[in-house]
Design a protein that fits this description.
heterodimer; A: mainly alpha; 19 helices; 8 strands; B: alpha+beta; six-stranded antiparallel beta sheet; five-stranded antiparallel beta sheet
């Protein structure tokens, strides 16, 4: 018995030892080429494992070790694909929420046939397509084609897949991998510099997570403890972290940080908070800062938890979006305007709910209504400017100022809706209490222009990713907003 | 005009209620437009809403509302300076847009490598009619639905234009001099597969070939008069079939025929018919082979080598009876009334006779279909079609190919095509370069190297994304690319002339400056502090 225990322990530890010597975690800093960009292996391994399992770890193994072992020998790691859809579970004859790729891989063709046989685009077909894509990626990883290695040829770095390299030098699959990769890394750094390592530090720093904590702290200090200065300090710290985060994305990608959904959400939260700090300071008004912080919390929550919808991957740009000053200014202005309109939306809804719960007097609402009006003014001017800059960009890139593309049409719809509200309010045609409800509801048009065009209409030239789950998110948002409007429709009647 | 009526109109159009009303109509139309685009594509949404006359009307009302709102607030008041600037800016943008709409060009030019191009293709559709010596063109309506035209030119009456058309089979009574007209529809099916096929011997049918290939199975529709001829055995096992005369003959009975052999010993036949020579290689195909070694499926005569149809599965349909070769013998079967199904000897296939007529023919005809896309490709409604009457008979032509008809006045050619304007110079694509993202097939940039042949001599230019070429008042943008069959890349440039551009830019600038002035600079005067 003792011998058996010793043997098992030995085997286990040797297996662990084998794992850590074959694929130690310091491989994370090795450069690789994936999705059209050179990046640290850590980033690619994490994206790969996330795509395959929905998580960034495999049991106790980190993403890099798991990815490396999987590439070397598929039997070393048992990766499991998430099987969420009930119909998909039935098709695969399982009740488990996950299924091993070793079981799934032989069924790849069967899954393909099933996809082809389903005519309508439903959630089942989508889940099948997703699984098929995962299996395709799994195959590419285990066939060693997903991992490119840097090799110095002459004085230039060339990229070869692990499959190509290992067919010439089979020894790297056993013991030689680590030293081979480290040699590749030092050759790469000598030739091209270590700029790519910034991304490793950036991804590992989790700046968004810290920004969320700081924002929450600031909000708590301002609201619960009524301590203004510490609250402002944390708000400024949040801005600093977000500035750093945006700056690093610019350095890594070499372009403005506003070219996918993730970045627009990040930027609008940042913009709204910055605007709130400035206006709040000028007007000596704490409420605007609180609204800015609350809006920032909303966006940071989305960034942290809605990974399905908003991918933080830094990808290469489609050609028309490259090297374009007008694009950067256009999107920045639009997103800033969404931030300002977001502030008005938050204030309006807070006001409605506070009235409903009887925690604010009717006279007080007049003052806050002015604040909302202020946000609207900033928002609409920025939006108008952003739309025009978009026209300039389209003219510069495509030769037309306006082309009725759904994204630009919806931005004009938003502007028109806010224009009606502003004109109505300016001439007292819209009574003050209606103004608040209208402002709260009007933000739905912003959400439609921002997310709905991509997630619901899903056509047109603006190519932010059309991710999954977005439609559900939007429907929930619209549902809650409409419920709030219905529940508070009579809160401004005199007591 | 009566002063009170004038001021009434002024006060109605200049009022806020009017402005809000038209803005709401404008906004709702745009919302509908974006959804229409999502379902039916940009072209359809453009025709129904964005580029329609009524939507232009709504925009004109907004323009009027802004203009009158400005007028009624004159003479200038210092308080309203921002307002004036914003509304003057809007009016300028409106004027600029109108100038662009009226005098601008928004088209594209397609360049294939090393060949000269000078035609800019515009989105408007036109029809060109050439009847005898006379030629006319007509610009077609831009609406999204079928439009009656009813215009006549040299005996040709244009009936209607279908902007989104699909082609479908329509069974119609036809009159013909021949007595062996036959048309049939069949369903070929087994447990896993089913396909409906239609045939006719009515000859004016390019889209309905008499021989089709369904996987390994060749299906051939022949006049029932050919059946008996087909049943005859002859030494050479060759049959000449004339589809124009609906006659068949054993080869030994045919005159004007020259026989020969290829180097490999295959039979060659040359037949003179209607002053034309047809070359056949009956061991390979019943159709003649053209001088450029293409199979000529438009030929009126064919030579069937029965031996050739004994090599693989081939099914001959003679309307209500069929023939096939299986297990070393030819079998002939007829559809019995009541049970119109015949068992075929391959993979459990059965054949069902769906329809058989001797006075009707299934004719391809265009019908209106809203554009439908699947996986980024148009699957329905992708054609434009036009119907016209000449000599009392109705014809149709679609945008994918022109139509030629012999009429009492001679040859009539009708073509549907995009409006084209020629450039004042010629364009030649000398090189097309595409770069991909490293390690992927995704295009990262595409670049066209072009040469321009102008009156002052050739010039070389390099056009790529965000680096357009501006010359002779035109601007050329890199917009797309395509690959020819030869593997060579071609380039598509969008061509633009926008005389309203600077008016729009200036108006936009005023708009933003005015709004900033109105809201931001006067913010100190806001009553926020007072309320607090």
């Amino acid at each position: 018995m003792k011998q058996l225990i010793v043997l098992v322990t030995l085997l286990l530890s040797s297996a662990l030892f084998a794992n850590s010597t074959l694929c130690p975690s310091d491989l994370e800093s090795v450069p690789t080429l994936a999705d059209g960009r050179e990046k640290p292996l850590y980033v690619h391994a994490r994206d790969s494992i996330k795509l395959l399992t929905g998580k960034s770890k495999v049991d106790d193994l980190g993403a890099v070790t798991a990815f490396c072992l999987l590439s070397l020998d598929a039997t070393l790691v048992d990766l499991k694909a998430p099987i969420d859809h009930v119909a998909l579970q039935a098709f695969l004859k399982t009740t488990e929420k996950t299924l091993s790729y070793k079981i799934l891989l032989p069924k790849k063709e069967e899954i393909r046939t099933e996809i082809v046989s389903i005519k309508e685009q439903g959630s089942y077909r989508k889940s099948l397509e997703k699984l098929w894509g995962q299996l395709d990626h799994y195959e590419s990883v285990i066939s060693k084609k997903d991992w490119t290695l840097p090799i110095l040829v002459g004085d230039e770095i060339k990229w070869r897949t692990l499959a190509e390299v290992s067919s010439e030098k089979p020894e790297i699959l056993s013991s030689g991998l680590h030293s081979f990769l480290m040699q590749g890394k030092s050759d790469y750094i000598k030739t091209k510099g270590d700029h790519y390592l910034i991304e490793l530090h950036f991804v590992k720093a989790h700046l968004t997570g810290y920004a969320l904590i700081f924002t929450l702290l600031s909000l708590a200090l301002l609201v619960a403890f009524k301590s203004l200065t510490p609250g402002i300090i944390f708000a400024v710290l949040t801005i600093a972290l977000q500035t750093l985060s945006l700056a690093l994305r610019v350095i890594i990608s070499g372009r403005a940080p506003i070219t996918n959904m993730y970045e627009t959400v990040l930027f609008s939260g940042f913009g709204a908070l910055l605007l709130a700090l400035i206006v709040g300071h000028l007007k000596k008004e704490k409420v605007i800062l609180i609204a800015g912080l609350a809006y920032n919390v909303c966006t940071l929550m989305m960034l942290t938890f809605a990974n399905e919808m908003l991918s933080d991957k830094i990808g290469p740009l489609v050609p028309v979006l490259r090297d374009n000053f007008w694009l950067s200014t256009h999107v920045t202005t639009i997103i800033l305007s969404y931030g300002a309109l977001g502030l008005s939306w938050l204030l309006a809804n807070s006001l409605l709910i506070l009235r409903k719960t009887g925690r604010i007097k009717l006279e007080e609402t007049r003052y806050y209504s002015e604040l909302i009006y202020l946000c609207l003014k900033y928002g609409t001017v920025l939006l108008a400017a952003g739309i025009i800059l978009g026209g300039v960009w389209a003219d510069y890139s495509w030769g037309r100022f306006w082309g009725w593309d759904p994204k630009e049409t919806w931005s004009l719809i938003v502007l028109m809706i806010y224009m009606v509200i502003l004109h109505g309010r300016y001439t007292s045609w819209i009574p003050p209490h209606r103004f608040i409800s209208l402002t709260a509801g009007a933000f739905m048009s912003v959400m439609m222009a921002w997310f709905g065009v991509n997630y619901i209409l899903a056509s047109g030239l603006h190519s932010y990713g059309f991710s999954e789950g977005g439609a559900l998110f939007l429907a929930t948002f619209f549902g809650i907003q409409i419920l709030i409007l219905i529940a508070t429709h009579n809160v401004f009647k005199e007591e | 005009m009566d002063r009170t009526i004038f001021s009434k109109i002024e006060h109605t159009v200049g009022s806020l209620k009017f402005a809000v009303g038209v803005i709401i109509i404008f906004t709702l139309s745009m919302i509908v437009g974006t959804f229409l685009e999502s379902y039916y594509g940009a072209n359809f949404a453009g025709k129904v809403i964005y580029k329609s006359l009524w939507f232009m009307g709504v925009q004109l009302l907004i323009f009027l509302s802004i203009f009158v709102a400005l007028l009624v607030r004159l003479p200038p008041v210092k308080r309203l300076y921002g307002f004036y600037i914003v509304h003057i800016g809007l009016i300028m943008v409106g004027c600029g847009s109108f100038v662009t709409y009226y005098a601008g060009i928004d088209g594209s030019i397609t360049l294939t490598k090393n060949s000269a191009a000078r035609d800019v293709v515009l989105p408007d559709m036109m029809v060109t009619i050439q009847h005898g010596q006379k030629k006319a063109t007509l610009t077609l309506p831009t609406g999204a639905f079928t439009t009656s035209i009813n215009k006549e030119f040299e005996g040709v009456t244009i009936n209607k234009f279908i902007p989104f058309a699909s082609l479908g089979l329509d069974w119609q009574k036809v009159s013909t001099d021949r007595n062996d007209l036959a048309s049939s529809s069949y369903l070929l099916f087994n447990d896993k597969f089913s396909q409906e096929v239609s045939f006719t011997t009515y000859s004016e049918q390019e889209d309905l070939p008499s021989s089709i290939q369904l996987g390994p199975l060749g299906v051939h529709y022949l006049a029932s008069s050919l059946k008996d001829c087909f049943l005859k055995e002859n030494a050479e096992r060759l049959l000449l079939w004339n589809s124009q005369e609906q006659s068949c003959a054993n080869l030994s009975e045919v005159k004007n025929i020259t026989k020969g052999k290829t180097k490999k010993g295959n039979l060659t036949l040359t037949i003179k018919y209607n002053d034309r020579e047809y070359n056949f290689f009956p061991d390979f195909t019943p159709w003649p082979i053209s001088s450029s070694f293409q199979i000529d499926t438009s030929s009126p005569i064919r030579i069937f080598n029965k031996s050739q149809f004994e090599k693989g599965p081939n099914l001959f349909l003679f309307g209500e009876s069929v023939a096939y070769f299986f297990e070393n013998k030819w079998s002939y079967k007829s559809f019995e009334p009541g049970t119109p199904i015949i068992d075929l000897p391959w993979m459990g296939f059965k054949l069902k006779l769906l329809k058989h007529k001797t006075d009707e023919a299934p004719l391809y005809a265009p019908y209106y279909h809203k554009p439908l896309q699947k996986d980024g490709e148009m699957i329905e409604g992708k054609l434009q079609a036009l119907t016209f009457t000449v000599d009392g008979k109705e014809y149709w032509v679609s945008s994918d190919r022109p139509l030629s008809v012999q009429t009492s006045k001679g040859a009539l050619n009708v073509a549907l095509h995009n409006k084209v304007i020629p450039l004042p110079f010629e364009f030649v694509l000398t090189k097309f370069k595409m770069e991909t993202d490293p390690g992927t097939n995704r295009p990262a940039s595409f670049e066209s190297f072009v040469q321009l042949f102008t009156e002052v001599g050739p010039q070389s230019h390099h056009i790529y994304m965000n680096n357009p070429l501006k010359t002779h008042g035109f601007t050329f943008y890199q917009s797309s690319y395509f690959q020819e069959e030869s593997g060579e890349f071609g380039s598509v440039l969008s061509v633009n002339v926008d005389p309203g551009r600077w008016l729009k830019y200036l108006g936009s600038l005023l708009l933003v400056l005015g709004a900033t002035f109105h809201y931001m600079l006067r913010i100190k005067k806001s009553n926020l502090g007072e309320i607090k």
